[in-house]
Amino acid sequence: MSxxxxxxxxxxxxxxxxRRTFMLADGSSVxxxxxxxxxxxxxxxxxNREVRLIGEAFFDVVDFxxxxxxxxxxxxxxxxxxTTFDVRAFPEKERxxxxxxxxxxxxxxxxSDQQLKxxxxxxxxxxxxxxxxxDSLAHTTEVLAIFFDSIMGASGEKCWKExxxxxxxxxxxxLFPNDIVGWLKKRFRA
Length: 190
What we know:
Order of helices and strands: EEEEEEEEEEEEEH
Helix content: under 10%
Strand content: 35-45%
CATH architecture: Sandwich
Structural class: mainly beta
Radius of gyration: 16 Å
Oligomer: single chain
Largest sheet: 13 strands, mixed
CATH class: Mainly Beta
Number of helices: 1
């Protein structure tokens, strides 16, 4: 990512209970879920396509030769082109989730020893990074475990539970009790 820390880039924001779709200068689109921030590098669509995400977003990325689309979160950098994927990365949570719908992406996961682990995802794969909550004073988080999952059901049907937020559907599977209260607050602006 750029060394300037995105200090003067464009910020896209959603509040509690709000979801918005934005068209980016490179022709890609992003749908931000509630309580999310997307910071675009000041040179986005000119010399790079780098963004920083806090929250959850669904990306529909167009091809832009020579410039991969890059999403930075607390625990990883996601790179791809001509792809659609969802990223859930709230710094205060203990896990980040990336779900690839189409195309291919490469994830560089920041390990606790400051080394990167590169992982490629293919369509219908999901990666979960379990980590410590982000320490805002030390600007660190520690990766505890990495898990892969498939989003195909037992009978072959597509299981899009991780992105049903886009269609205003409620999904209760895989929610931890402490996540339910936060989810309800975001959804209903409480």
